[in-house]
């Protein structure tokens, strides 16, 4: 067992542990911080499986953008001042049953299948993944790329319009 | 060469945990966190199966677009949660049974 393998299983264990801890914490802010740990260790796994560009995107966009947005949302929706925002539970039995059943179904399917993937590419072309992905995005996948840009523009303008605190007719009537 | 089975088990685990979070939690923001977990499980699956054809990068580029759509979903979702909180004073979906004007 080399150091590479040990680090890989460390990241796998960290991801699993931090994600399952979200189920048990009651403070919403702690759940968001645990999700940050989960996403960062997922980025480590991406690097070790040869998806460096995706790992950097994961760190920049998820851990840097989405989670900051969610933490601002948590800060803005605390009901009582000085008291942390806590979450209640419902449907615990049914939800756990469905989740565990789904997990065991998927595990059974994975266990049943024999994967014989080709060997990992050599170290020589390992460090050219980012350049190849950039060329592919700008050539073969340019139409979805532009569509993704339009989708981002539309959704961010929509989010800004929805969240802006304008004077509606209700507020004037009050 | 790392084995691929741990990645597949981990992605199934992440998806199931996200499913349990969406089912059992009563806060809208935590439900959004659960949806993020499920999307990350799907992303990990795409990256793992990208190794079936390492010379193509279909899985990784698909995962990039999944991340873009997840960002859009989170931005609009948080905006709706903030607006609903501003209007009703709560972010628990069960307490909001209709989006009409207050009587």
Verbal overview:
The complex is a heterodimer of chains A (174) and B (103). Chain A is mainly alpha-helical. Chain A has seven helices and no strands. Chain A is globular and about 55 Å long. The termini of chain A are far apart. By secondary structure, chain B is mostly helical. Chain B has a single domain (5-91), classed as Helix Hairpins (Orthogonal Bundle). In chain B, 71% of the residues lie in helices and 0% in strands. The longest helix of chain B is centred in the C-terminal third of the chain and has 31 residues, at 58-88. The radius of gyration of chain B is 18 Å and the shape is elongated. The N and C termini of chain B lie far apart (64 Å). The interface between A and B is large, with 83 and 73 residues.
Task: Lay out the secondary structure.
The complex is a heterodimer of chains A (174) and B (103).
Chain A: H1 3-21, H2 28-48, H3 52-76, H4 92-112, H5 129-139, H6 142-163, H7 169-173
Chain B: H1 5-24, H2 28-49, H3 58-88
């Amino acid at each position: 067992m080399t150091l590479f393998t040990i680090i890989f299983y460390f990241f796998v264990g960290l991801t699993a542990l931090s994600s399952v801890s979200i189920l048990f914490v009651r403070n919403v802010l702690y759940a968001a911080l645990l999700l940050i740990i989960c996403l960062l260790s997922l980025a480590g796994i991406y690097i070790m499986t040869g998806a460096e560009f995706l790992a950097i995107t994961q760190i920049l966009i998820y851990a840097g953008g989405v989670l900051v947005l969610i933490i601002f949302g948590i800060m803005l929706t605390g009901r009582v001042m000085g008291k942390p925002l806590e979450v209640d539970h419902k449907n615990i039995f049914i939800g756990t049953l469905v989740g565990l059943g789904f997990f065991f179904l998927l595990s059974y399917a994975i266990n049943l299948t024999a994967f014989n993937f080709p060997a990992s590419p050599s170290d020589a072309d390992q460090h050219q993944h980012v350049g190849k992905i950039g060329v592919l995005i700008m050539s073969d996948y340019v139409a979805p790329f532009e569509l993704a840009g339009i989708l981002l523009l539309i959704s961010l303008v929509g989010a800004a319009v929805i969240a802006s605190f304008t004077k509606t007719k209700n507020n004037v009537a009050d | 060469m790392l084995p691929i089975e741990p990645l597949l088990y981990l992605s199934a685990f992440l998806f199931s945990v996200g499913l349990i979070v969406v089912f059992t939690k009563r806060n809208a923001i935590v439900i959004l966190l659960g949806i993020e977990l499920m999307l990350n499980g799907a992303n990990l699956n795409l990256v793992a199966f990208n190794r079936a054809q390492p010379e193509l990068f279909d899985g990784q580029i698909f995962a990039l677009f999944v991340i873009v759509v997840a960002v859009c979903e989170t931005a609009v979702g948080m905006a709706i949660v903030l607006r609903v909180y501003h209007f009703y004073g709560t972010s628990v979906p069960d307490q909001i049974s209709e989006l009409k004007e207050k009587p």
